[in-house]
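Hi R.,

Here's the chain you asked about this morning:
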Amino acid sequence: MKAWYISTVYEEFGNTVVFAENVGKAKSVALSTDCCIDAEYTEVRARRCPKADKKYRKGKKELDWYAPQDRYFLVKELGFRCEEVFEGECSECSAQKVCEAYADYLKNMDEV
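And the predicted structure, written out as tokens:
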């Protein structure tokens, strides 16, 4: 199974990584994700993400941002990040040690 980086023409909805055999199936799977829930098939963009192929497990359709191991991988290996830094949430996040946004936040707090 291949990993696919998914986005939409409307960038404000975020991104995700899904698993599918080909680009058409990836776009179809993506339509059921939070990233693409209100998108039309033609508005979904999919490009190969071979780095994430190793994260596939039988029956898994998407890397789950809310699963600590998936989040760590998405942040460390693919550069995903939250839209905003919230110290309370970030301090509990599984990816806090590899998150550039949180590191920048902490650096700025030290400078204040």
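The helical segments are 23-30, 68-78, 87-90, 100-111.

Let me know if you need anything else.
M.
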